[in-house]
TrEMBL record:
Membrane topology: Multi-pass membrane protein
A single MF term (Gene Ontology): ABC-type maltose transporter activity
Keyword Transmembrane helix listed: yes
Domain ABC transmembrane type-1: start-end pairs: 74-266
Protein name stated in the entry: Maltose transport system permease protein MalG
Keyword Membrane attached: yes
GO BP: maltodextrin transmembrane transport
């Protein structure tokens, strides 16, 4: 049945308006946090809701950068995120390719078992991980936290990239073999360049997970000098007496800025990297 062009335009217009409304609604908390961060007074609950600061100031941003150990927290978070992303991809990329291309005994059982393990909330393993790392002397170390992060994100990375490898036609690899390319050349010059979108997106998703983690960071890192951004932000709101909402809002927005910049840089790869990674077995 051919749809009426007028009805289709009306439906499209309402759909666009609906999603515009959702975007605006989602931006309101962010805009309010931005307004609070520019407000000189710490009277969030004493004044009415407003997206315009009553007394504009940049002192809270200066305080975060120069008076608080924000840059140290940023460095610690970047260090953890960098090694977690590198190790996760180094393990997950060849594993995802192997599960996608090769047929071996126990293949499906193994990959679904990994999926099942990853389905449980990570907080359930908190006590077991703590005792294990404590017995190894890795509590309050970046090495222990990287192991925890890598163990969880490698499984996610494997599943996400395997779906993308499944969409790459194996005929391309056969054609390269006929032309004389060996396995290493096929993977490095053909498969990996084609899988670039999903590798980039997976790396960013792993990065976001580490960047935003609070539970493991606050429990496995006890030294204030080793805090990540999430753990450091908590210290700004540790007690009712010392809570400074404008300072906390400024620190939160600054902590979100690097991820926002990365997202805008890789947004061209987001669509293909996310949708193709969801192909079923």
């Amino acid at each position: 049945m051919i749809q009426n062009p007028r009805k289709r335009r009306i439906r499209l217009a309402f759909t666009n308006l609906f999603f515009i409304f959702l975007c605006i609604a989602g931006l309101i908390p962010i805009l309010y946090a931005l307004s609070v961060s520019f407000n000189s007074s710490n009277s969030v609950f004493a004044t009415g809701f407003s997206l315009i600061p009553s007394d504009f100031t940049l002192d809270h941003y200066k305080n975060v950068i120069f008076s608080q150990p924000f840059l140290l927290w940023l460095k610690n978070t970047m260090l953890l995120a960098f090694f977690t992303v590198i190790i996760s991809l180094a393990v997950a990329v060849p594993a995802a390719y192997a599960f996608s291309r090769f047929r071996f005994r126990g293949r499906k059982t193994t990959i679904y078992l990994l999926l099942l393990l990853n389905a449980f909330p990570s907080i359930l393993s908190m006590l077991a991980l703590y005792r294990l790392l404590h017995s190894m002397g890795l509590i309050n170390t970046y090495t222990g936290l990287i192991i925890v992060y890598t163990g969880g994100m490698t499984i996610f990375s494997l599943w996400n990239m395997k779906g993308y490898f499944d969409t790459i036609s194996i005929d391309i690899e056969h054609a390269a073999q006929i032309d004389g390319a060996n396995d290493f050349q096929i993977i490095c010059r053909i498969v990996l360049p084609l899988a670039k979108p999903t590798i980039i997106v997976t790396a960013v998703l792993v990065l976001i997970n580490v960047w935003n983690d609070y539970i493991f960071a606050i429990n496995f890192l006890s030294a204030a000098g080793k805090y990540t951004l999430a753990a450091g932000l908590y210290t700004l709101q540790a007690t009712e007496q010392t809570r400074n909402w404008p300072l906390f809002s400024a620190a939160s927005l600054l902590a979100s800025l690097p991820i926002l910049i990365i997202f805008f840089i890789i947004q061209k790869q987001m669509k293909s990297g996310l949708t193709s990674g969801g192909v079923k077995e």
